[in-house]
């Protein structure tokens, strides 16, 4: 009996001890695993199953547009720096252009390794009504021998950048070597078009059976949506292969039309108008003074164009 | 074989630890992320409370999870994932102590005289620090039993599985651990 009583007391005491210690222990739990340790372990776990490591912390939603905007600002700042610099070719080009809607800069093939380091400045024109300004820049690699062997000339596009000032900006980076098409994928709100052809840039009037793309580019495209834009450059490959065109700028000037400016390494700036019906009109072609970089025969420029003239073709 | 009778399910998620582990073994890396998030603190604190320096505790934590990763294909749902996890953690700890020539027996010789503190404890912060030191000073078997129950939330039955010890012995370890800690802190509460 006394033994049972003793056990009972002991049990009660243990319950009291447990409650007391547990209460204290709860206040001890302020140790957290260091973030570096977390990342190390998670990286190992992902690496083992061949997955990309994923950061624990979610990036805030505003980070992508903010970084894109910052990139855009950097590009513009660098561009202006080039303009203001002494003896700048771009500065002279800019000054001599009557309607410098688009100025594209490329260091050119004289600096072969810098072909990917493209600087560009977009200036709004006074003569063309802008609903938005979507620019697409293609940066092409120098060496084309491999691509030529496959019949495409320069079919490997290293980088595609799209900037849409209306719907914020984004950047596309994708290459597809040896294929007919250039793929450009973005997570930004540029376009709803998926796997459509925008047009054929062959310098002549040409048509495409494909559906319109321009009218699918909509500002209400939601943030974070993923899109793919496919450009058919099959008929344009000869020019690319020749290395003639180093910079192309495609600017949406109305809802349904784009303007393409090509700055060639042999000193020619060409302007095209591209409609959503996929035909391209070469507006003009001007040689550029090799010394000053300015366009020659600027009086022949057909600017501003009447879009109705183009769409009537 | 141990049967699962108490498969724990997170609030807001129907994914059990076991299903997540199997998913990870099948190559789904995000499943590991969730598992790690659920148990990382318990494992880390299990090592921290051993009285090891933080750097050592981090190394042991790292080793434990690497063994989980490496052993993902060997994992079968014959026990709770957490049980499996802490068996690994305990083995890692024992290996570490063996390397340091700190055997279970020598640790068990720690007597109450080593318990810190007959100093006056002024505030709760000091008390909790005192408790941490008191836990670290417990003999190994009492300490691991205490931590597995208090930190990881295991029952005494589960602890007997993890430590491969008789259930009565685990009960004794738990009781002695409580008594020792209580005595070490008696001047504060009495």
Query: Mean of residue pLDDT of chain A?
Result: 44
- Number of helix segments of chain B? 10
Uncertain runs of chain B are 1-13, 102-121
Helicity level of chain A? 25-40%
State the assembly state of the protein chains. heterodimer
The percent range for strand residues of chain B is under 5%
Fraction of residues in β-strands of chain A: 15-25%
* Estimated structural class of chain A: alpha+beta
Based on helices, strands and strand pairing, what is the structural class of chain B? mainly alpha
Residues in helix, % of chain B: 55-70%
Question: Mind summarizing the main beta sheet of chain B?
Answer: none
Radius of gyration of chain B: 18 Å
**Roughly how many Å apart are the termini of chain A?**
111 Å
Q: Report the order of strands and helices of chain B.
A: HHHHHHHHHH
**What count of helical segments of chain A does DSSP give?**
7
The end-to-end distance of chain B, rounded to whole angstroms, is 46 Å
The major pleated sheet of chain A works out as: 6 strands, antiparallel
Regarding CATH, which class of the largest domain in chain B? Answer: Mainly Alpha
Number of strands of chain A: 11
Mean pLDDT across residues of chain B: 78
Explained architecture:
The complex is a heterodimer of chains A (313) and B (190). Chain A is α+β, with helices and mostly antiparallel strands and 313 residues long. Chain A is 27% helix and 22% strand. The termini of chain A are far apart. A 6-stranded antiparallel sheet of chain A has the order 4-3-8-9-10-11. In chain A, strand 9 and strand 10 form a beta hairpin. The longest helix of chain A has 25 residues, at 2-26. Chain A is elongated. Chain A contains 7 helices and 11 strands. Chain B is an all-alpha fold. Chain B folds into 2 domains: 1-107, RNA polymerase sigma factor, region 2, helix turn helix motif (Rna Polymerase Sigma Factor, Chain: A, Orthogonal Bundle), CATH 1.10.1740.10; 117-190, Arc Repressor Mutant, subunit A (Orthogonal Bundle). Chain B is built from 10 helices and no strands. In chain B, helix 2 (29-48) runs antiparallel to helix 3. The longest helix of chain B has 20 residues, at 29-48. The chains are: A alpha+beta (313), B mainly alpha (190).
């Amino acid at each position: 009996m006394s033994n049972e009583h003793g056990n009972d007391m002991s049990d009660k005491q243990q319950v009291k001890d447990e409650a007391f210690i547990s209460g204290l222990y709860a206040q001890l739990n302020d140790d957290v695993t260091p973030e570096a340790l977390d990342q190390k372990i998670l990286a190992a776990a992902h690496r083992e199953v061949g997955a990309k490591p994923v950061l624990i912390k979610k990036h805030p939603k505003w980070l992508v547009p903010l970084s894109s905007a910052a990139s855009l600002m950097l590009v513009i700042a660098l561009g202006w720096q080039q303009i203001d610099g002494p003896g700048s070719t771009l500065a002279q080009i800019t000054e001599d252009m009557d309607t410098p809607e688009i100025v594209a800069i490329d260091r050119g093939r004289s600096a072969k390794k810098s072909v990917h380091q493209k600087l560009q400045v977009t200036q709004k024109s006074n003569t063309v009504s802008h609903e938005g300004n979507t620019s697409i820049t293609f940066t092409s690699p120098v060496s084309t021998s491999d691509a030529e062997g496959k019949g495409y000339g320069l079919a490997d596009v290293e980088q595609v950048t799209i900037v849409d000032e209306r719907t914020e900006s984004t950047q596309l980076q994708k290459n597809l070597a040896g294929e007919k098409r250039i793929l450009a994928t973005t997570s930004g709100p540029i376009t709803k078009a998926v796997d459509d052809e925008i047009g054929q840039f062959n310098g002549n009037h040409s048509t495409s059976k494909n559906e319109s793309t321009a009218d699918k580019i909509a500002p209400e495209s939601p943030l974070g949506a993923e899109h793919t834009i496919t450009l058919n450059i099959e008929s344009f490959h000869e020019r690319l292969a020749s290395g003639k065109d180093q910079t192309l700028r495609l600017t949406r000037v109305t809802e349904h039309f784009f303007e393409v400016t090509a700055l060639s390494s042999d000193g020619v700036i060409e302007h095209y108008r591209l409609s959503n019906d996929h035909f391209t009109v070469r507006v003009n072609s001007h040689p550029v003074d090799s010394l000053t970089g300015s366009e020659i025969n600027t009086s022949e420029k057909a600017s501003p164009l009447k879009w109705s003239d183009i769409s009537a073709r | 074989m141990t049967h699962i009778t108490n498969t724990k399910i997170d609030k807001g998620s129907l994914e059990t630890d076991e299903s997540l582990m199997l998913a990870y073994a099948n190559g789904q890396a995000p499943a590991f992320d969730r598992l790690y998030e659920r148990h990382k603190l318990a494992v880390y604190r299990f090592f921290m409370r051993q009285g090891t320096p933080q750097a050592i505790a981090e190394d042991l934590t790292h080793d434990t999870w690497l063994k989980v990763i490496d052993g993902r294909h060997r994992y079968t749902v014959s026990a709770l994932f957490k049980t499996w996890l802490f068996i690994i953690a305990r083995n890692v700890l024992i290996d570490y102590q063996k390397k340091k020539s700190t055997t279970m027996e020598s640790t068990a010789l720690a007597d109450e005289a080593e318990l810190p503190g007959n100093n006056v404890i002024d505030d709760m912060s000091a008390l909790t620090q005192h408790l941490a030191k008191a836990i670290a000073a417990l003999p190994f078997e009492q300490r691991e039993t205490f931590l597995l129950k208090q930190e990881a939330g295991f029952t005494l039955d589960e602890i007997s599985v993890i430590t491969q010890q008789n259930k009565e012995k685990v009960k004794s370890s738990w009781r002695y651990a409580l008594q020792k800690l209580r005595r070490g802190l008696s001047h504060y509460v009495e």
